Amino acid sequence: MTWQPCDDTARKVSPTEVSLTPDPPVIGGSAQFDIIANSEEDIIKSGTVDITISFAGVDIFSKSDDLCDKAACPILKGPTKVTLVELLPPIAPPGDYGLKLVAKGSDSSELLCLLVNFELVMPEGGEAVDALRVTVSGKEGFSTSA
């Protein structure tokens, strides 16, 4: 897993550390991204977190969440933590993925922009098959006979 700010633009919140648990994440499991950042101001009381996931350079998933569901609000001057927990679909292909996180204030100004590159791996043994069986709710053994 590697990470970097989106660009050199100065923002109110600067990332200082990013961790991913587990690293690498496993298909059908969950991935927790913990972002430690430094806030330049203590005025951030609300906002949104926009997340975009890409595979092979193509955006495949995006969502927006309340910033205060991912961090303790109000965000005060100094260090703060943003936590994202994402459930990974059991049918996702293994490979290299990208995550773009953009946190915005209530006035839509960009507070934080971060790029994370990570690898998604197959589970050991038959866990992937078991996860897929759960997903299709026990509809195994389809028959083509009428």
From TrEMBL:
GO terms for biological process: sterol transport. The keyword Transport applies. Residues 1-21 are annotated as: Disordered. The keyword Endoplasmic reticulum does not apply. It holds the Pfam family E1_DerP2_DerF2. GO terms for molecular function: sterol binding. InterPro entries: Ig_E-set, ML_dom, NPC2-like. Keywords: Lipid transport, Signal, Transport. Residues 3-118 form the MD-2-related lipid-recognition domain. It comes from the Eukaryota. Belongs to the NPC2 family. PANTHER family: NIEMANN PICK TYPE C2 PROTEIN NPC2-RELATED, PHOSPHATIDYLGLYCEROL_PHOSPHATIDYLINOSITOL TRANSFER PROTEIN. Catalyzes the intermembrane transfer of phosphatidylglycerol and phosphatidylinositol. Monomer. This is MD-2-related lipid-recognition domain-containing protein. The lineage of its organism: Eukaryota, Viridiplantae, Chlorophyta, core chlorophytes, Chlorophyceae.
